[in-house]
From TrEMBL:
Keyword S-adenosyl-L-methionine assigned: no
Organism for this UniProt entry: Sphingorhabdus contaminans
MF terms in GO: carbon-sulfur lyase activity; metal ion binding
Occurrences of domain CENP-V/GFA (ranges): 6-118
Family: Belongs to the Gfa family.
Protein's name in the database: GFA family protein
Entry keywords, A to Z: Lyase, Metal-binding, Zinc
Length: 137
């Protein structure tokens, strides 16, 4: 499969990134931590190998413990606070970055095929037909 690159960044433009595309997967995480971090019902994330992402600019890290009990580093623009990247520090997920897909310059073809932590999903949300549904992650 031929890989292209996509670019993205934060709201103010202080942080920019290039990422190999397509990602290994696109998911919607419904855990309460992603809900609070995104200010929405879920967070749409793309899983990419660490070596596939190149970031410029200053990020601020927030150290969290996910609902799974695993350490999570949530990375934000130091200037405007836009959430950009999450890192899960548990094998085998620690070899990947999870980028917030809303920060891509081109969001075409970004469709989540799996939904994580559906046990925490908002009551009003209807899961798409054919999507992989995981009660937890």
């Amino acid at each position: 499969m031929m890989r292209e690159t996509r670019s993205g960044g934060c709201l103010c433009g202080a942080v920019r990134y290039e990422v190999a595309w397509p990602p290994l997967g696109v998911s919607a995480c419904h855990c309460t931590h992603c809900q609070k971090q995104s200010g929405s019902a879920f967070s749409i994330i793309a899983r990419v190998p660490r070596e596939a992402l190149e970031v410029t600019g200053i990020l601020t890290d927030f150290y969290d413990t996910g609902e799974s009990g695993s350490p999570v580093i949530r990375r934000f623009c130091a200037k405007c606070g836009s959430p950009l990247i999450s890192e899960i520090q548990q094998e085998p997920l620690d070899s990947f970055f999870f980028i917030k897909t809303g920060t891509l310059d081109d969001t075409s073809s970004v469709v989540p095929t799996s939904h994580w932590w559906t046990s925490r999903a908002q009551d009003w949300f209807k899961f798409p037909d054919g999507a992989v549904i995981m009660d937890r992650q």
